[in-house]
Write a structure and sequence with these properties.
Layout (H helix, E strand, L loop, with lengths): L10 H9 L13 H4 L3 H11 L9 E5 L5 H12 L3 E6 L1 H4 L8 E5 L6 H6 L4 E7 L2 H7 L2 H11 E13 L1 H8 L2 H11 L19 H13 L3 E6 L10 E7 L2
Parallel strand pairs: 1-2, 1-4, 2-3, 4-5
Antiparallel strand pairs: 5-7, 6-7
Length: about 250
Amino acid sequence: MSKNPFDEIGFEDFRAFAKNPQLSKYEKIGFPDAFRAGAEERIFADIRRKLTNLDKAGQIALDIGPGCSDLPLMLIEHCRQFQSHLYLIDSQEMLDLLPDPAWTSKHPAKFPECPDFMEAQKEKIDVILCYSVLHYILVDTAFFRFLDGALSLLAPGGQFLIADIPNVSKRKRFFASATGIAFHKRFMNTEAAPEVVFNNVEHDKIDDAVVMAILQRARLQGFDAYVLPQDRELPMANRREDILIIRP
């Protein structure tokens, strides 16, 4: 498969993307249009199936790195319908591209570098969403500090969805399969099979070891944690997956 031109970017890059009028709303958040256009309603439906607290009234929700596509707009509207309050944490440049209804609060920061927010909301958040951001966090932030900080915010019964994780181990398993080989040939318009090399370390990439470390780290702190598949209809479900963490 071809390399995503938005690989290996971080927080400061996204600040620049947000200010670039030449980029589409999907390109501003690191995706070619073909990967997100027309798919975000299905993405949000998949999120709701996992973050069931979203469908309860009067919740306190947090979106870490919402970006500026239609997905955060859907979440904002959903919180209005359920009379929930939504916190949004991202760069000021990204947040400026989102509306400011009364039931939302914006906090410009690179999470968890927002100590006042972290202290004020400790153990108060009912639902946290971090969608398609983890792979940037891995190379741009103290990774376990991010995870531990988010977990510290969860209220009893709170849910934390780390979603759309590009797991290179899952990707390799897919492209080593007959289904994956056929997908690659069709997508790339080639007769050549994809090159797959197992048991080698890919620096600054998420693999099974990182995914399992997240589960273990959360469970050792008293949280339940699960790896969940994405809806098969989502654009990259064959090579991405989600982690759901719940405070009992």
